[in-house]
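Hello support,

Our group uses your service weekly, and this is the first time we've seen a run hang past the timeout. The protein is FBD domain-containing protein. I'm not sure whether the cause is the sequence or the server load. Input pasted verbatim:
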Amino acid sequence: MKVILNRELEMCPVFSNLKVLSLGEWCMAADLHPLVLFLQHAPNLERLFLKLKTEHEEIDDDIKPEGTSFACKNLTMVNIKCPKDDERVPVLEQFFVANGIAMEKISVYHRPTHQPRLSLAIRR
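Update from on-call engineer: The timeout came from a worker crash unrelated to the input. Re-ran successfully.
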């Protein structure tokens, strides 16, 4: 499935009118390849939302900017929603900064860790 997705993404058209993009966990491969392809095909993107979950594939710590570059000159906001202490956040921040996105444009929102729900019994 991963090979088919990568092959299809390579042939993806350019989305020149795309301004806002929200991506989930599935685009976060170890080398960020699906994310890079989307960014390369959305040159006029202004706002990017990434929603990360707790269980995930580990991202390579040493992602090289060469080959993972994109040009979204209009990108004014990157919003990362993730669990607290998600080790992917520093890698993503480094990735965006290496591609010319200022740290001030990157916001990280931590979701509270999953807590078991307490059920209340009502007695009559």
